[in-house]
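Morning!

This is the sequence you dropped in the shared folder:
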Amino acid sequence: MNAIGYIRRSTNRQEESLDQQRSKLQGFAAARGWTLSEIYVDDAISGSDMTRPGLDAMMNRAQQDKEVGIVLAWERNRLARPKDPVDGLMLERKLLIAGKRVFYVATGQEADRSFASGLIGYVEHYQNGDYLRKLSRDTMRGHVARAERGLWCGGPIPYGFDRLYTTMDGKPKRILRDMSDRTQHVLHPETGALIEIIPPGLRYTKPEFELCTLVPSDPVRVHAIQKMFADYAAGLPIRVLRNNLNKAGLRTIRGRIFTIPTIHSMLDNPAYAGISVYNQRTESKWHRHSGGQSVERLDEGLELRPESDWIVKPNAWPAIID
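The structure's back. Tokens below.
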């Protein structure tokens, strides 16, 4: 019998690594005399995303290749952590309709059309989604606590700033600078000496016990920001500001040229005046911060939040402009 497999992890700190999952699937198939012809992979992708490159490729193969009779995954939560458990059941249903047998290797459980299987599947898919629901709530609580202290809560750093990591009591530990070649430079917080270069494709992972705030970056970047704001205040058009930055050979922290929309967002960013503003918008699938608490979302997608729900902290970090 010809089989295919699917493995996934959300982060590089997953409890079951991709190699472990792959080995378990191979052993399960070999013990039953099945030929495991291919294993599809999604790495560093949440199970709440119901469209994933590896998953889509596996589903297409399973639905189109009549030679494939078996589909293997480590557990249901590798296949999906759906917001709605019905979405997880529908993935299994598509495979069953295509005539495939679906096995979860960790338990040896087979998903089929029986009442017991459907009931267990619904409960497990609900539990898998509920894990992310609770994680989202706890994560948002942490973000709110940091925002109320005027700390950086994550996301792309405004051009002209670096990240400063500190201990819980505020002692500087290291500076992280995003470079235009997509590397990250780890710098000594006092001398500015280069400690480490993190290559493109890898990202610095902050220890859980450290906090993050912002500090002005190298003088060239800081001067460019100050000149941009001064020129704008003097009445120069935004296209001139854009051209000046690009002609100076400067690039965004993603290595791209500056554009008019980029300049607009920079001029609108209160971070340059040392002001932390959290919760202006959210893309969370699970919760929004509203009325001082986490409220579960029934909808999804980008949502602009009313100003009454913003968390604003002046003097959160050194300002680049007044």
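Headline: The mean pLDDT is 91.

More detail when I'm at my desk.
O.
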